[in-house]
Design goal:
The complex is a heterotrimer. Chain A is an all-alpha fold. Chain A has two domains: 65 residues, no CATH class; 175 residues, Orthogonal Bundle (MetI-like fold). Chain A is built from 13 helices and no strands. The radius of gyration of chain A is 24 Å and the shape is flat. The relative contact order of chain A is 0.13. By secondary structure, chain B is mainly alpha-helical. Chain B folds into two domains: 43 residues; 216 residues, MetI-like (MetI-like fold, Orthogonal Bundle). Chain B is 77% helix and 0% strand. Chain B is built from 13 helices and no strands. Chain B is flat, with a radius of gyration of 24 Å. Chain B starts with a helix and ends with a helix. By secondary structure, chain C is α+β, with helices and mostly antiparallel strands. Chain C has two domains: 230 residues, P-loop containing nucleotide triphosphate hydrolases (Rossmann fold, 3-Layer(aba) Sandwich); 111 residues, OB fold (Dihydrolipoamide Acetyltransferase, E2P) (Beta Barrel). Chain C is built from eight helices and 20 strands. In chain C, the strands form four sheets. In chain C, strands 6-7-8-3-9-10 form a six-stranded mixed beta sheet, sandwiched between helices. In chain C, strands 13-12-11-14-20 form a five-stranded antiparallel beta sheet. A five-stranded antiparallel beta sheet of chain C has the order 15-19-16-17-18, with no helix packed on it. Classes of the chains: A mainly alpha, B mainly alpha, C alpha+beta.
């Protein structure tokens, strides 16, 4: 029985072996390894001496980490909500049988093709008071116009979010528009016959039907949030002070600059936990649905 | 208000909003392009939105020269990474969809979750593994890394596409006596053109735009363009030549922008299908 | 056909995860026989066909084709050809390539491939389509090509998985006749899955009626129609459906009687073996066997005709005798008679145990 099975599926196993190797070594192996290091007193070099949760205690007492996490949460909420609102608005406007839809679509989506490094650099210039918007307004004659959010720790995160929304709302638009186009025309006819205004129809009927699309978009945006690194590097470098530091940059700096791999892996383990808690259930749900669907 | 006038007012409002948003999205690109064509004196004295009085392409020439090594490195990284990651993903997606293997669904689950784990979690162990094999900081190393991190999305992309093909096609081929590779080469892969296009778009833009992985794994000799760009722009010694910086930025963004403009609707399909669900 | 091509399935078990789709299933198909597997969706008929083809792994039992145990053979090594519901034509290949692909894979010599493709194309009248892509064909043409792809294999056993379901009614009838003709001509063994009883009744030498992974009755179309083995088969086969009337058995001087509050129907035979007086039974009467009372028929009672459905060649009258609802076929030109005395030939009547559903 076993021999027959092996003969029949040998090629399939061979074909899967690169993927299998990567999954086992990286996605499973490296994760476990990383978690393991976080439980040892590794600094410059890894060590086998377990110290329990010592690194986690140290981590939670590190101001920069706590600031990074706070920044990420604050940025995340702002970015996700603003992108959802802007992108959905774009999608709804695009759905009004407009002329030049292809042109607007091309415009709204192009930032998505760019690297976060590029996005960060552009916005850094535009927001630099001596160079960008502030200078422009002063040139126009508003001599006391003031806009230097990027240079103040209390406002810098808004500017990062602005750049990220600029890049990300096209994604929301594309997915929401696909969702809107999938809504049955008869829903609209039914709502019109009942005298429900288009705005009301969107809010009460159509958008709730797009729950799946909204969930998908939110997960994708959340992925951008947890991976946030390039944009910060290019735009603010984490500053002023620690005011725009984020966890991915924290991990990077502690791995390569401070050479405290125990602390860095503790931080990455916490991030992993965060992702598993928020994204794991959603993915497991999708996976189970697919597995069940395949059983037919 | 009459129905026609109400309608007109609504249309005006819609187009006003659309155009306002388009200007917001286009603004930065406009600023970049015109600034890159100005002399430094004009940048420090003039308006950020004003067209250049005396256009110059000198900044472009300087930047192109500075970035040429990075550009070549990015191309060297891009081509094998795109080909290998798509090949591995397509074959894995095909095997997972059509050949019922035990544990296959668990593999899919790991990939689904793996697509969302921050790279930071893997960096340290991966550096050690690659260093052990002498691949850290080499072209081979960075290609392996891109293949690794492209695997979840590529596999799921192809698996989903193959799940939309009728399974009877596969059965018919088996009755016809075709084996695993034969079915893939003669029947399944020739049908994959649309999804291969999507995958190429996703991978070309994704790998070209990568910064973190190139920074960590590529090594000094293979620094991709994004990393070089950041180095050039953020070196704080001396005066900053904003016109050159802008030109450099546009040059770095040029490849994915070109891919985007050429591919049009395929790009939309890529971001909606690729990243989307498992 | 010289190659032995009987198909025999013994104690077959198929599981999807923990669900047993087929359990201890047995069926024998004789050489050159045309067998139809008939049942509603999810009854396991396609699973059985796929197991015979070797396209799914079986977890127990045996599949023999031509006397050879092929349970663990690859599909290509089973001497079979198969036609699918969705045609499953390779979309990137021309019709010619679709037909020849399997032969090329098998390493057959080119002249022989050309001969077989030409022969199949002539037989199915698809010669002028050979250089087109499947996407340029109509549904009927696609299915011809799919049948052609099976034909070129010159296999002794053909498996058809609902091949006509995606076609419109008229094409379906046409291709049905052609498949029957084809079977006569090549004399191969055919196993044909469908959920359409007309297809089953017209095509099959024998029909296996399946439900819930079991074969309920395996017999000629005539027998299945006239003497269904249980209530399920009786209700599934025949359109309009068989009339079912609940009641009980009674013994009388003339033999057994079917009795309920509204009618007394003489069965003109003794109590069936294994039954007893007073047993709850269901009387099954096909609409065409419910006729106006007269010579040779046993009376059912006076019926009110509530509705007359005109169906062209004949009409269907929906009648009521007391609380019993039943339908009868009338002449196509008939007017609603209002009230009518109905009877039936007891020899045509089926009798089932109400509890088990089995035929008595």
């Amino acid at each position: 029985m076993m021999k027959i099975w092996l003969r029949r599926n040998f090629s399939a196993l061979m074909a899967l072996s690169p993927a299998l190797l990567i999954v086992l070594v990286v996605y499973v192996g490296c994760t476990i390894w990383s978690v393991r290091i976080s439980l040892t007193d590794s600094h410059i070099l890894p060590s086998d001496h377990y110290v329990g949760l010592h690194n986690y205690v140290r981590l939670l007492n590190t101001d920069r980490w706590n600031t990074s996490v706070g920044n990420l949460v604050f940025f995340g909420f702002m970015f996700i909500i603003a992108s959802l609102v802007t992108g959905t608005l774009m999608a709804i406007l695009m759905d009004q049988r407009i002329k030049g839809e292809a042109l607007f679509r091309t415009i709204y989506l192009y930032p998505l093709a760019m690297s976060f490094i590029v996005t960060g650099l552009i916005w850094e210039w535009i927001l630099q008071p001596t160079l960008g918007i502030q200078k422009m307004m002063r040139n126009f004659g508003f001599a006391h116009f003031h806009f230097d959010w990027i240079n103040h720790s209390s406002t810098v995160l808004y500017t990062v979010a602005l750049a990220a929304v600029w890049q990300g709302s096209g994604l929301v638009m594309a997915i929401m528009l696909a969702g809107l186009r999938g809504v049955d025309d008869e829903i609209w006819k039914a709502a019109r016959i009942e005298g429900i205004s288009p705005v009301r129809t969107y809010i009460s009927i159509v958008l709730p039907m797009l729950g799946g699309a909204i969930a998908t978009v939110t997960v994708l945006l959340a992925l951008t949030v947890v991976r946030l690194f390039d944009l910060i590097i290019a735009m603010t470098g984490g500053g002023p002070g620690d005011s725009s530091e984020v966890p991915a940059k924290f991990i990077y700096d502690y791995l390569f600059d401070h050479q405290d791999i125990g602390l860095a892996t503790a931080a990455s383990t916490l991030m992993l936990g965060f992702v598993l808690v928020f994204i794991g259930p959603w993915q497991i749900w999708q996976w189970r649905r697919d597995v069940r669907g395949a059983g037919r | 208000m009459s129905r026609a006038r109400k309608h007109l007012a609504a249309r005006v409002a819609i187009y006003t909003c659309l155009i306002a948003m388009a200007l917001f999205v286009l603004g930065p690109l406009y600023v970049m392009v015109i600034t890159s064509l100005k002399h430094m004196s004009e940048i420090s004295s003039g308006n950020i939105l004003a067209l250049p009085h005396i256009p110059t392409i000198a900044p472009w020439l300087v930047s192109a020269h500075k970035l040429s090594a990075g550009f070549l490195n990015s191309v060297k990284i891009l081509i094998p990474s795109v080909i290998i990651s798509i090949a591995v993903g397509a074959i894995a997606g095909y095997a997972l969809q059509f050949w019922r293997l035990p544990g296959a669904s668990l593999l899919v689950l790991i990939l689904l979750i793996g697509a969302f784990i921050p790279y930071a979690v893997f960096i340290y162990p991966l550096v050690r593994i690659l260093a052990f094999f002498g691949l850290f900081g080499t072209l081979t190393g960075i290609v392996i890394v891109h293949t690794t991190f492209g695997l979840p999305v590529m596999t799921i992309l192809f698996k989903n596409f193959y799940s939309s093909l009728p399974v009877e096609l596969f059965k018919a081929a088996r009755v016809d006596g075709a084996g695993f590779w034969r079915i893939f080469a003669s029947i399944v892969f020739p049908m994959s053109t649309p999804i291969v296009i999507v995958a190429v778009i996703l991978q070309v833009t994704g790998i070209w735009n990568d910064f973190l992985l190139g920074l960590v794994f590529a090594g000094r000799d293979n620094m991709p363009m994004t990393v070089e760009l950041n180095n050039i722009v953020t070196t704080t010694t001396g005066t900053r030549f904003y016109n050159q910086d802008m030109a450099a930025t546009i040059l770095t963004a040029a490849v994915p922008l070109l891919v985007y403009l050429v591919s049009g609707r395929w790009f939309v399909r890529g971001i909606t299908a690729g990243a989307v669900k498992g | 056909m010289s190659v032995a091509s009987n198909v025999s399935v013994a104690n077959l078990q198929v599981k999807f995860g923990a669900v047993r789709v087929l359990n201890e299933l047995n069926i024998e198909v004789k050489q050159s026989e045309f067998v139809v597997l008939l049942g509603p969706s999810g009854c396991g008929k396609s699973t059985l066909l796929n197991a015979i083809a070797g396209l799914i792994d079986v977890s127990g039992g045996k599949v023999m084709i031509g006397g050879r145990d092929v349970t663990h053979e690859e599909p290509k090594d089973r001497n079979i050809a198969m036609v699918f519901q969705s045609y499953a034509l390779y979309p990137t290949m021309s019709v010619r390539r679709n037909l020849s692909f399997g032969l090329t894979v098998a390493g057959m010599a080119r002249p022989e491939i050309t001969r077989r493709v030409q022969a199949a194309a002539d037989l199915l009248k698809i010669g002028d389509l050979l250089d087109r892509r499947p996407s340029a064909l109509s549904g009927g043409q696609r299915q011809r090509v799919a049948i052609g792809r099976a034909l070129v294999r010159e296999a002794p056993v053909y498996l058809f998985d609902e091949p006509l379901s995606n076609l419109d009614a008229q094409l379906r009838a046409e291709l049905r006749v052609e498949i029957k003709r084809l079977h006569k001509r090549i004399g191969a063994t055919i196993i044909f899955v469908t959920h359409d009883q007309i297809e089953a009744l017209t095509l099959a030498d024998r029909i296996a009626i399946m439900k819930g992974g079991k074969i309920l009755q395996y017999d000629t179309p005539r027998t299945i129609y006239a003497r269904p083995a249980n209530l399920y088969v009786a209700g599934f086969i025949g359109s309009p459906a068989m009339n079912f009337i609940k009641g009980r058995l009674e013994a009388s001087d003339d033999g057994a009687m079917f009795v309920n509050d509204d009618m007394r129907f003489t069965l003109r035979r003794p109590l069936p073996p294994g039954s007893r007086a007073g047993q709850a039974v269901t009387l099954g009467l096909r609409p065409e066997h419910v006729v106006a009372a007269g010579d040779g028929v046993a009376p059912l009672g006076m019926a009110d005709v509530e509705l007359l459905e005109t169906m062209g060649a004949d009409s269907l009258a929906w009648c009521r005798i007391g609380a019993c609802q039943l339908t009868t076929r009338l002449d196509g030109a008939a007017q609603n008679p209002g009230r009518i005395a109905l009877g039936a030939d007891p020899a045509e009547a089926s009798l089932f145990d109400s509890e088990s559903g089995d035929r008595l």
